[in-house]
Design brief:
- By secondary structure, the chain is an alpha/beta fold.
- The protein folds into 3 domains: 138 residues, Nitrogenase molybdenum iron protein domain (Rossmann fold); 112 residues, Rossmann fold (3-Layer(aba) Sandwich); 160 residues, Rossmann fold (3-Layer(aba) Sandwich), CATH 3.40.50.1980.
- It contains 17 helices and 13 strands.
- It has a 5-stranded parallel β-sheet with strand order 11-10-9-12-13, with helices on both faces. A 4-stranded parallel β-sheet has the order 2-1-3-4, with helices on both faces. Strands 6-5-7-8 form a 4-stranded parallel β-sheet, sandwiched between helices.
- Helix 10 links the parallel strand 7 and strand 8.
- The longest helix has 23 residues.
- The chain starts with 24 loop residues before the first helix and ends in a 10-residue tail after the last helix.
- The structure holds iron/sulfur cluster.
- Iron/sulfur cluster binds next to helix 2.
C-alpha cells in the first residue's frame, strides 16, 4: 500500500498541501506560447524552474520541448534579472533564430519585481532584438494560481500585444480552444472545416506537439498560429471562448480592445457541450450544420443507448482543471453516472457554481473542493470513507487506483505513464465516443477479471 498513511479522518487544513491537483503557472504559459508559429518560450527565472516545466511538457507530449532560461543565480536574486535577460535574448536570436520569443516570469523574478516592459524595451534599444523579430511577455507568479492561470495569462498577452482592428470585412470567427490537447485543437479545426466556418484559433499546438516521425527534426515545426493571424483576429465577427478558466480573460480583452463580441462556452467535451459549441458556430457564422456532423452525433447517441446498462449509477471521482471537470461531469450525468467527488487545485472563481449547475439534483450528494488544499490526499480520504467505481484524472491518481483497486481513466494534464491522449481527441462527438469507449473498457476489464467462473461472459 503506497498510500497506507492516508487517514480516513478528514481534518481541516489551513496551509498544508499533500500531492497537489495542479502544476505551476509557467507550464501553462509555456504550453500556450508553443501554440504560436516559430515561437521560442523563455523562462525568466532559474534553470531549475525551466527544466521542470520543459520536462513535464516533454513527458506528457512525448515531444522535445524547447525553451530558453534566464538562468538566475544567487547574484541575480540580489541584483535583479535584467542583465541575464538581455544576454539571453541576444543569445536566443543569434543561436536559435526564432520569429517570436514569449517570456514568462517565475516565482523568483516576480518576487524580485523585475520590470519586463522596461527590460524588453532596453533590449530593443540596444539592438538585441533583430529587426522584424518579436518579444512579448506574460506575468506568471506561481505562488498563486496554477498552470491554467499561466495558460490564460499567456493567451491574454497574445491579445494585448498583437490583436488589432483594421476594419477589414471578414467572415472569420476566432476560437480560443482552452487548455486541451493538440489533437483536440486539430479536431476543433476539423469540425469547423466540415461545417464550413473559416476560423482563427489561438493558441494552436497541433503540428507542434503531436508531430509525425519523418526522420528529420525541425526546431520550429510547421504548426502554430502566426502573429499575423492573431493581429487579424481583431477583425473577426466573433469569438468562441472555450473554457471559462483558460479562455475568458483573453476573449474579454479582445472584446474590450477590438470590439469583437465573444461567447463563453464550456469545453466541447461530451454530447451537450459539443451541441452548444456547434450551434454557437452555426449561429455566429450563419451556416447550416451538414449531415455528416448530425450522423456523428447519432452514432454517439446509439453507443450510449446500447451500453447504458454498464454505466448507470456508477460513482465517479474526478480531478483536474476546472474547465475539464465541468464538461466531464455534465457528460457523466448524461450517461446516468454519478460524479460524486471533484477536486481541482486551481482556485477558479465560479467553478463550484458551474459544477452544481451541470450536476443538477446530484449536486446535493457531491463533494467539490478547489484551491491549494483540494489535493489528491483529500480525494483519497473521501474515497476511503465511501468508495467509487471509477477514477478520471491525470497520472497522479494511479496510487489511489492501485491501493483501492478502482478502474482508472487517465484524462487531463499531466499524463506521464500512458499514450493515447496525444492521438485521440476527447472534444466533439468523436471525442465523446472515445470517452465512452474508455469507460466501458475499464469496467468490462474489471468484470472479466473479478467475476466468478459461472458468471464469466463471452458476450457483453
Ligand atoms: S512553483 Fe515557482 S519556483 Fe517552483 S518551478 Fe514553478 S515557477 Fe519555479
Amino acid at each position: 500500500m503506497l498510500l497506507r498513511h492516508t487517514s480516513s479522518e478528514v481534518l481541516e487544513r489551513g496551509a498544508l498541501t499533500i500531492n497537489p491537483a495542479k502544476t505551476c503557472q509557467p507550464i501553462g504559459a509555456m504550453y500556450a506560447a508553443l501554440g504560436i508559429h516559430k515561437c521560442l518560450p523563455h523562462s525568466h527565472g532559474s534553470q531549475g524552474c525551466c527544466a521542470y516545466h520543459r520536462s513535464t511538457l516533454t513527458r506528457h507530449y512525448k515531444e522535445p520541448v524547447m525553451a530558453g532560461s534566464s538562468s538566475f543565480t544567487e547574484g541575480t536574486s540580489v541584483f535583479g534579472g535584467q542583465a541575464n535577460l538581455l544576454q539571453a535574448l541576444q543569445t536566443l536570436f543569434t543561436t536559435y533564430n526564432p520569429d517570436v520569443v514569449a517570456i514568462h516570469t517565475t516565482c523568483l523574478s516576480e518576487t524580485i519585481g523585475d520590470d519586463l516592459v522596461q527590460i524588453v524595451q532596453k533590449a530593443k534599444d540596444e539592438g538585441k532584438v533583430p529587426e522584424g523579430k518579436i518579444v512579448f511577455h506574460a506575468n506568471t507568479p506561481s505562488y498563486q494560481g496554477s498552470h491554467v492561470h499561466g495558460f490564460s495569462a499567456m493567451c491574454k498577452a497574445m491579445v494585448d500585444n498583437f490583436a488589432q482592428t483594421t476594419n477589414t470585412d471578414t467572415n472569420r470567427i476566432n476560437i480560443m480552444p482552452g487548455w486541451v490537447e493538440p489533437v483536440d485543437m486539430r479536431e476543433l479545426k476539423s469540425i469547423a472545416a466540415t461545417i464550413g466556418v473559416p476560423i482563427t484559433m489561438y493558441p494552436d499546438t497541433s503540428d507542434v506537439l503531436d508531430l509525425p516521425q519523418t526522420g528529420n527534426h525541425d526546431f520550429y515545426p510547421k504548426g502554430g498560429v502566426t502573429i499575423d493571424a492573431i493581429r487579424a483576429s481583431g477583425d473577426s465577427i466573433g469569438t468562441l471562448a472555450l473554457g471559462h478558466s483558460a479562455s475568458r480573460r483573453a476573449a474579454c480583452a479582445l472584446e474590450d480592445k477590438c470590439s469583437v463580441p465573444h461567447q463563453l462556452l464550456e469545453l466541447p467535451i461530451g454530447l451537450q457541450a459539443t451541441d452548444r459549441f456547434i450551434d454557437a458556430m452555426r449561429v455566429m457564422s450563419g451556416v447550416s450544420v451538414p449531415d455528416s456532423i448530425t450522423d456523428e452525433r447519432g452514432r454517439l447517441i446509439d453507443m450510449i443507448v446500447d451500453m447504458h446498462q454498464y454505466l448507470s449509477g456508477k460513482r465517479v471521482a474526478l480531478w483536474g482543471d476546472p474547465d475539464q471537470l465541468v464538461s466531464l461531469a455534465e457528460f457523466l450525468v448524461l450517461l446516468d453516472m454519478k460524479p460524486v467527488y471533484m477536486v481541482t487545485g486551481t482556485p477558479s472563481t465560479g467553478v463550484e457554481k458551474r459544477l452544481k449547475h451541470v450536476l443538477g439534483p446530484l449536486a446535493a450528494e457531491a463533494k467539490i473542493a478547489k484551491g491549494a488544499q483540494a489535493d489528491m490526499y483529500l480525494m483519497h480520504q473521501w474515497i476511503k470513507n465511501e468508495g467509487v467505481d471509477l477514477l478520471i484524472g491525470n497520472t497522479y491518481g494511479k496510487y489511489i487506483a492501485r491501493d483501492e483497486n478502482i478502474p482508472f481513466i487517465r484524462h487531463g494534464f499531466p499524463i506521464l505513464d500512458r499514450v493515447g491522449h496525444q492521438y485521440f481527441p476527447t472534444v466533439g462527438y468523436k471525442g465523446a465516443m472515445r470517452l465512452v469507449e474508455q469507460i466501458l473498457a475499464v469496467f468490462m476489464d474489471k468484470q472479466d477479471r473479478e467475476d466468478p467462473e459461472e458468471k464469466f461472459e463471452l458476450v457483453m
